[in-house]
Design brief:
The structure holds two protein chains of two kinds. Chain A is about 70% helix and about 5% strand. Chain A is built from 22 helices and seven strands. Chain A has a three-stranded antiparallel β-sheet. In chain B, strands 1-2 form a two-stranded antiparallel ribbon. In chain B, a hairpin with a 3-residue loop joins strand 1 and strand 2. Classes of the chains: A mainly alpha, B mainly alpha.
Chain lengths: ~550, ~700
């Protein structure tokens, strides 16, 4: 399926619109604060419109994952082509974009959260120009990660994201912003380095044929087609990497279930686990969240945390189905630990933002458990949970932001009785908290239920332990609600005002999505169903018949 | 009326309160009278429709089930399973039709009553909105024909209960009670969820009919009898939470913090009975062992809470423990296999217990007003020790309250007598067939205790003399919106609505409409079948009736002797059995135990993990950072001192050497010759010595 505007593919538009916006923002005079804000908003709004169009035009019957034919809105061009670099051979890297059921939901989420975060950025006052330029650059990086189908390109976008995030926390953050920013940066960098190693190993282990026109053929295709004049090259093409037929015989990652493959999977795993963040790689998150300004927290929780899980589903699982199968129990275990541990640590927090940061650890644990189950239900639940966590946690951070802007404190115990003082605020907060604790009728319930359904089929005991979280989450969520909203209002907060129009708009938009998907989840689930079935199929076929007996 | 029309009408009954909720939340405060007429009107209309549906259901198509399924989540082609569709199905069988009417009667009457009771409340319109949401959620449970939707309704009634218990959230005790209710229920739901997961994993469906069919074809979860029983017990866990059964009963007495009409609707008649309804719905998949667990949980609950009720002085707390006890009765009834009786008791209990709560609400309302007029802000309006003699001032409330008390005590000509008698006969039959004689013994004991504590309540509240002569004349009967619902419920507590024969309900319409379904588990696992059990029950009926009349009579007599004629001194007994009395006052210590062990333990554990997270995990991260910085500092020093030092040293040394040797480079030939000869001489002597 193709879809272009002015001769340029929609995915390129989606990815690079914010950079265009950035360029314009940089050209604007520093004094025109509102012009800068509205320009940024216009570009993210346009991006959101395009994302919605993309979803509407998306063909739900195509799977994608490991088949290029199943990818939609594909854009492909030669990006880097160096004929021969000594022993390195010919380097041919493609600008290869495309979406399937896995990424399309994430594209929508990224556009939505970027839009909301831009509105939320209205309250930023310090060097606006730099802030919005970086925000837009970050947007491009995030979008690029979700649409790239070439590992090299993926890696570039992954790194592009890192720098703006570092500055957005380190310059516009709270008192300990530099510590938090460095911690975030180094932690992610460590993951990136490991990912780079795995990527290079994969590169040298994958062979494809290329004809003079630059068209790629997998090894099996080439044998069948009988085209002459083909050249054998290495590639970063992710889809090529998923085809075992392309493995270079005798190369490092050749074979099935070898130690080297497990090591490469492990390197990728750490890179992605840090981003999720999975226990025990999670401690950068509370610091980053506490110090980051509200819109950046929203982006961090709403989109960035999804990249780890997305990376696993997009790269680790289909490229290393053997290793994934081998370590699925361990993966599920880490997911369950994150769920329970995150919830318990959240319970003990007195800083509102820290509490939500730990609740993110807990909620993302559900994603990991659902993914690790290798069932369609579980993985659909996981991807849907990624989307829902994005919207719900964005709401939660916006909610903290609203109160922080007014009271300049995030101490949960300093509040009380806000329900009477800020009824509109209380209404959205109630919805967000109920969604976070998995109330039916709101979107989080469905994704959690599906994840557990899938997980229970594969890991019975682990799922039972993980399900304890439904009690713990209800506990700490309602406890916070009580401490902030119920009871009587302390004297010092008599002057607090309810949300203004801008704040109401952001939160109401997200609330409507949360309620709509809670009642009618099919529009979202249908997007990913076929793709997830296909991925489950890949994992099932991965050479072991004992799959169903895995307890 | 066709089955299609019936199910559509049921859907209307289901969705009307939801529409009411949405309207009230958005526009309630702007409407005249804050929209109480709208919410009340909607619930009344829904009640009328539900009555039509029930009548049509029982007359036109008594044996069929009307079903409507909406495919909701489609999952195509799951590897290894095939396609799965999660449906939001509603089904109307006799059980659902009766339950729907019960819910709507109580809901509508509570709406009417609330107009009087909640008058002038700060959150008047929101209160009515929540009532609508609750009614919708409760009807979702009732009409659902699959576990998924049922679970959704299950959680939603939980959150409504949370919201309404905490209606006066300025009070810390109210918001605490709301949280306690929700969390305790979630613990039960944890089990319910696992049960659901087991059945879904086995049969790939949530539909009850499909699960039953699968079981009937001989498939067991994981092919194991143990798992079959476990799955049943896990589903029952949900009922333990919702119906406040031991050991999760602790939330219900605290839930009395909510407005009294809410207690009547949610915490007496409908939501807490949902657990019983769930057991009835899933009855066919319960193995004999699972039913035994259910029966014993019911017995333990009924006994513990009846004993606690004796020692309570708060009018609502007495009723709360009585509710737990009666729910235990229903659970026990289903557990022993007296299916019809258990459900029948649910229906009759809903009427008289809602009546009791609304009656107590009427009393509290009147007491409040009197205290308010006296400017008395210290006296507890709910403590029965401050009451007495209210019969004269509040005749309607008194006579209706007496009617409900007679019903709950199992006095003939009331509805309670009919249903309780059936359960007792069931326990006798069960004891005779299985040898678990402790079940009928405790059941009869509890019947006596019930009669005792209920008449204690009536005597202390309405009879004798009022405690404060100055206040007495200020107590007034409440308005008609409050008394009319009481009268209606009192009328509905007569036997005649349920059976023509006042002594035996087995020929009544409920017994015809609601018959015990056949078990679907393999015969070797199932309890005694319907016919065998039915015969035994029929056989024990006469004995049960005589015994139940006897214990009820004794209970009532002892209550009068103690609190009216004062022949027995309650203080004396309390004094003589002080440890027992303390135990009862402390509610058997469950709250203390849970506070210390469960809540305290969880919080302590969470604090410990927070420390672990900060110190160990983040400590390791920071430690690694520190170590890296340390290493780089050391290697930096090594670089400047050792490596660079060595380089510098060599440079310095060669410089120094140059300095020294430069001295020799004088440029004079004589000097060179001198050094050359001198060196040769030195060398000569050196070699000589060697």
């Amino acid at each position: 399926m193709e879809f272009t505007l002015l001769g340029i593919g929609i995915l390129t538009w989606l990815t690079f619109l914010p950079v265009v916006g950035m360029a314009i923002v940089l050209l604007l005079p520093k004094e025109g604060k509102d012009t800068i804000r509205w320009t940024s908003l216009a570009f993210t709004a346009l991006q959101l419109v395009l994302a919605v169009v993309l979803v509407l035009r998306f063909d739900r019957t195509l799977a994608g994952i490991n088949s290029e034919a199943g990818m939609q809105f594909v854009e492909k061009a030669t990006w880097i082509d160096i004929q021969s670099v000594a022993w390195f051979g010919r380097v041919h890297i493609e600008y290869f974009l495309g979406v399937d059921g896995l990424s399309v939901a994430m594209v929508l989420l990224t556009a939505l959260i970027s839009f909301i975060a831009t509105i939320s950025s209205w309250s930023i006052t310090k060097s606006l120009k730099g802030y919005f330029a970086l925000l837009l650059l970050l947007d491009t990086g995030m979008m690029g990660v979700f649409v790239a189908l070439d590992f090299f390109l993926f890696y570039v976008f992954w790194e592009v994201m890192l720098l703006p995030m570092y500055f957005l926390i380190g310059v516009w953050g709270g008192p300990r912003r530099e510590y938090a920013a460095i911690k975030f940066f180094l932690y992610t960098l460590l993951g990136s380095v490991l990912m780079l190693l795995a990527m290079i190993a994969l590169y040298f282990s994958t062979n494809v044929f290329i004809d003079p026109a630059g068209v790629m053929y997998s090894i099996t295709e080439a044998a069948k087609s009988g085209v002459q004049g083909l050249e054998k090259i290495h590639t970063f093409n992710l889809i090529a990497m998923m085809d075992p037929g392309n493995m270079v015989p005798g190369s490092l990652l050749a074979g099935w279930g070898t130690t080297w493959r497990y090591l490469a999977y492990g390197a990728l795993f750490i890179g992605f686990a840090i981003k999720i963040p999975l226990f025990p790689f999670h401690t950068w998150l509370p610091d980053a969240h506490v110090e980051a300004p509200t819109p950046i927290s929203v982006i961090l929780a709403g989109v960035l945390l999804k990249m780890g899980a997305y990376g696993m589903l997009r790269i680790s699982f289909p490229v290393f189905p053997d290793a994934m199968r081998h370590f699925s129990w361990e993966l599920a275990l880490l997911g369950v630990i994150s769920m329970v541990y995150g919830a318990l640590v959240a319970m003990a927090q007195s800083d509102f933002k820290k509490l939500i940061a730990y609740s993110s650890v807990s909620h993302m644990g559900i994603v990991v458990l659902g993914m690790a189950s290798m069932t369609t239900q579980g993985m659909m639940g996981a991807v849907f949970q990624m989307f829902n966590h994005g919207t719900i946690t964005a709401m939660l951070f916006l909610i903290v932001g609203v109160i922080y802007d007014r009271a300049h404190t995030r101490g949960i115990d300093e509040f009380g009785g806000l329900m009477n003082k800020m009824p509109r605020y209380a209404a959205v907060m109630t919805i967000a908290f109920f969604a976070a604790l998995g109330l039916p009728g709101l979107s989080g319930f469905i994704s959690e239920a599906l994840s557990l359904l899938g997980a229970f089929q594969t890991f019975r005991t682990l799922t039972i332990i993980g399900a304890v979280t439904i009690v713990l989450t209800a506990g700490y969520m309602l406890w916070v609600l009580q401490r902030v909203f119920l009871g009587s209002l302390p004297e010092k907060w008599q002057g607090l005002t309810d949300m203004n129009g801008r704040e109401t708009f952001m939160l109401a938009t997200l609330a409507v999505i949360v309620i709509f998907l809670g009642i009618y989840p099919s529009p979202m689930l249908d997007l990913m169903n076929v793709s997830m079935s296909s991925l489950a199929g890949i994992l099932h076929q991965a050479g072991a018949p004992a799959m169903m007996g895995l307890q | 009326m066709s089955s299609e029309t019936l199910i559509h009408l049921s859907l209307a009954v289901l969705l009307l309160p939801l529409a009411g909720f949405v309207l009230m939340m958005f526009f309630g405060r702007k409407l005249p009278r804050q929209g109480d007429w709208l919410a009340t009107g909607i619930s009344t209309v829904a009640l009328l429709i539900s009555l039509v549906v029930l009548y049509q259901k029982l007359t036109v198509m008594p044996g069929q089930e009307a079903v409507l399924n909406f495919p909701w989540i489609n999952m195509h082609n799951l590897p290894g399973i095939g396609p799965i569709t999660i449906v939001l199905g509603v089904g109307l069988d006799n059980l659902a039709a009766i339950m729907m009417v019960v819910v709507m009667i109580i809901s509508a009457l509570v709406h009417w009553f609330s107009i009087g009771y909640m008058e002038g409340d700060v959150r008047y319109s929101r209160y009515f909105g929540y009532l609508g949401l609750f009614t919708f959620s409760m009807l979702t449970i009732v009409l659902s024909n699959n576990l998924f939707l049922l679970y959704a309704g299950w959680e939603l009634v939980g959150i409504c209960s949370y919201l309404l218990i905490g209606h006066w959230y300025e009070k810390k005790s109210a918001s605490n009670a709301g949280i306690k209710a929700f969390i305790t229920n979630r613990i039960g739901d944890f089990g319910f969820l696992l049960g659901m997961l087991i059945f879904f994993t086995t049969f790939h469906t949530f539909g009850l009919k499909e699960i039953f069919a699968g079981l009937q074809s001989g498939t067991l979860p994981y092919g194991s009898e143990g798992w079959m029983t476990a799955a049943g017990v896990l589903i029952f866990c949900g009922a333990v939470g919702k119906s406040a059964q031991f050991p999760l009963h602790v939330w219900l007495p605290d839930a009395m913090e909510g407005p009294t009409p809410v207690s009547a609707l949610i915490h007496a008649a409908t939501m807490v009975a949902a657990g019983v309804y769930l057991i009835a719905r899933t009855f066919p998949l319960m193995t004999a062992e699972a039913l035994l667990v259910i029966a014993y949980i019911g017995v333990i609950t009924a006994f513990i809470s009846a004993t606690i009720a004796i020692a309570q002085n708060d009018i609502k707390k007495v009723l709360a423990y009585s509710t737990i006890s009666q729910l235990g009765y229903m659970v026990m009834g289903l557990g022993v296999g007296a299916y019809t009786a258990g459900f029948f008791h649910l229906v009759t209990h809903a009427m008289f217990k809602a009546g009791l709560f609304l009656g107590s609400g009427s009393v509290i309302h009147a007491m409040h007003h009197a205290l308010h007029e006296q400017h008395d802000h210290h006296t507890d309006a709910q403590d029965i020790r401050n009451m007495g003699g209210l019969r004269e001032r509040m005749p309607v409330t008194f006579w209706t309250f007496l009617m409900f008390t007679l019903a709950i005590s199992g006095v003939p000509l009331t509805s309670g007598f009919l249903s309780k008698d059936e359960i007792l006969a069931g326990t006798l039959a069960f004891g005779g067939m299985t040898g678990h004689v402790v079940v009928p013994i405790v059941a009869f004991l509890v019947a006596g205790l019930t009669a005792f504590y209920m008449f204690r309540l009536v005597i202390l509240t309405f009879l004798g003399k009022h405690q404060d002569a100055a206040r007495f004349p200020m107590v007034h009967e409440t308005r008609w919106v409050m008394t009319v619902p009481l009268i209606i419920l009192a009328v509905l507590s007569f036997f005649a609505f349920y059976s023509v024969n006042p002594f035996n309900a087995s020929s009544g319409w409920i017994a015809h409409a609601v018959q015990r379904p056949e078990s679907v588990v393999p015969a070797s696992l199932a309890a005694a079948d319907r016919e065998t059990f039915g015969e035994a029950l029929h056989h024990e009926h006469g004995l049960a009736m005589v015994l139940s009349l006897l214990v009820a009579g004794i209970g009532i007599l002892v209550a009068f002797a103690t609190y009216y004629w004062k022949r027995i001194s309650a203080e004396d007994i309390a004094h003589r059995f002080a440890p027992v009395h303390r135990l009862l006052l402390n509610k058997w210590g469950f709250d203390d135990l849970y506070n210390a062990a469960v809540i305290g333990g969880t919080i302590a554990f969470s604090r410990m993990l927070r420390w672990f997270d900060n110190m160990i995990i983040d400590g390791a991260v920071n430690g690694t950072g520190w170590l890296t910085r340390g290493t780089s500092f050391v290697s930096g020093k090594f670089d400047t001192i050792v490596v660079d030092g060595l380089v510098n040293l060599i440079a310095y040394l060669s410089g120094f050497a140059g300095l020294v040797f430069r001295k020799f480079q004088t440029g004079k030939v004589q000097t060179y010759i001198f050094f050359a000869v001198g060196s040769m001489l030195v060398l000569y002597f050196v070699f000589r010595m060697v």
